[in-house]
Amino acid sequence: MVRHIVLLKWKADTTPEQIQASAEGFAFLRDSISVVRQMSFGADLALMDGTFDYAMVADFDSAEDWHTYRDHPDHIAFAQRFGHLAAEAARVQYSLE
After folding, report:
1. C-alpha distances out from residue 22 to 28, 74, 84, 94, 95, Å
2. Residue 32: pLDDT above 90?
3. What is the pLDDT of residue 97?
4. What residue numbers bound the domain in which 88 lies?
5. Which pTM was predicted?
C-alpha cells in the first residue's frame, strides 16, 4: 500500500470560502476516483508553531494506483483550480508495507 501526504500553507489572501471549496474538492476526489482506498484531510489544529495550514492523506493499493490518481482528469482539474491558493506545498509518498 502507498500513502500520499500533501501539506499546504495557504497564501495570506486565501479566504475561508476558498479553503472550504478545496475541502469539498478533496471530498470529490475521494469519492470519484475509484483507486483512492481512503482519504482524510483537514486544517491544522495550531497546537504548535511552524506547521503547515492544511493536510491531506490518501492511501492507494499500489504505486500504479497512485499514478492513476495523479494523472486522473479530476485530480488535474482540482490542482488547476486550487493549486494557486498555496504559498507552499510539501508532498511525500511512502510504502506502508
Report:
1. 10, 13, 11, 24, 26
2. yes
3. 80
4. 2-95
5. 0.92
Grid coordinates belonging to 22 = 478545496
Helices 73-82 and 63-71 cross at an angle (nearest 10°) of: 60
- How many domains, in total, are found in the chain? 1
**CATH number of the domain that residue 61 is part of:** 3.30.70.100
Report whether 82 contacts 54 (CB < 8 A): no
Cell for 27?
471530498
CB 40 within 8 A of CB 57: yes
Express as a percent the part of the chain with pLDDT over 70: 100
Count CA atoms closer than 13 A to 22's CA, side-chain side. Answer: 25
DSSP H or E segment with residue 87? strand 86-95
